[in-house]
Each structure stands twice: as structure tokens, then as C-alpha cells.
């Protein structure tokens, strides 16, 4: 499960898994696994595809479900969005999600918690 603390560790090492593995603090290594790191990196790639309009609706829906399954709260999702330069509070059509897809994601997130 991704948390804000794991996102902070990822940011502390600028997304460089080798730097984290070689010279990371013990506390950081205990707080995060390789799988968490790869999940964050994958979500950043997915957000980038969606942001650039390169993802089909089915891909966006699948991505939304994976976010809900793997993030502990909305703030964690917002921090991942910020890693790709996306304003977490943006409500404009054609941002990371279309307006309706974002509303659906937020509604699903509220129901799942």
C-alpha cells in the first residue's frame, strides 16, 4: 500500500531507485520496498500517458482502480499527480483525467474508504 511517507521517500531520492538502494538511510529502506518504488514509477508513467491524451478510456478506468487498490488515501494520489507536474486540485476538462473520469475516481475512492 502506498502512503504519503513512501511518496516522500521516493521524492527524497528524486525517483532514483539505485541511489536509494546504495546510499539510502536505513529508516528509508525499512519504510519502503522495491515493489513500492516500482508501483510509484509505474503510476507516474500512467499519469503521463493519460495527461498527454495517449490512453484509452478502458486504460484510464483500469488505472483508476489500481490507484484505489494501492493508495491509502486521496492525498497520496494527489502527491503522485504532483510528481508529474499535475496540480492535484485541477478540475479542468482534459487535465490528467477528463472531468467525468476524475469525479468517478473521487466517488469510488470515497466509497472504498
The residue fraction in helices comes out at: 55-70%
The number of domains: 1
Tell me the overall shape.
globular
Q: Report the strand count.
A: 0
Q: Helix and strand succession?
A: HHHHHHH
Strand content: under 5%
- Average pLDDT level: 83
Task: Describe the main β-sheet briefly.
Answer: none
Count the helices. How many? Answer: 7
Q: For the CA atoms, what is the radius of gyration? A: 14 Å
Would you mind describing this structure in some detail?
It contains seven helices and no strands. It is mainly α and 113 residues long. It has one domain (4-112). α5 (57-70) packs parallel to α7 (99-112). The chain is globular, with a radius of gyration of 14 Å. The two termini are 14 Å apart. The model is unreliable at 87-99 (pLDDT under 50).
Features:
7 helices; mainly alpha; globular; 113 residues
Question: What are the SSEs and their pairings?
Answer:
Layout: H1 4-12, H2 17-23, H3 26-30, H4 34-51, H5 57-70, H6 74-83, H7 99-112
Helix pairs in contact: 5-7
Produce a short descriptive summary.
The chain is 68% helix and 0% strand. With 113 residues, the protein is mainly alpha-helical.
Amino acid at each position: 500500500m502506498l502512503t504519503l511517507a513512501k511518496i516522500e521517500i521516493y521524492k527524497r531520492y528524486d525517483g532514483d531507485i539505485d541511489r536509494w538502494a546504495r546510499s539510502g538511510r536505513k529508516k528509508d529502506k525499512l519504510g519502503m520496498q522495491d515493489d513500492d518504488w516500482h508501483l510509484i514509477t509505474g503510476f507516474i508513467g500512467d499519469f503521463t500517458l493519460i495527461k498527454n491524451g495517449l490512453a484509452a478510456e478502458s486504460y484510464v478506468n483500469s488505472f483508476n482502480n489500481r490507484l484505489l487498490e494501492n493508495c491509502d488515501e486521496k492525498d497520496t494520489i494527489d502527491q503522485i499527480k504532483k510528481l508529474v507536474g499535475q496540480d492535484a486540485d485541477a478540475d479542468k476538462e482534459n487535465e490528467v483525467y477528463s472531468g467525468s473520469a476524475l469525479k468517478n475516481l473521487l466517488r469510488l475512492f470515497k466509497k472504498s474508504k
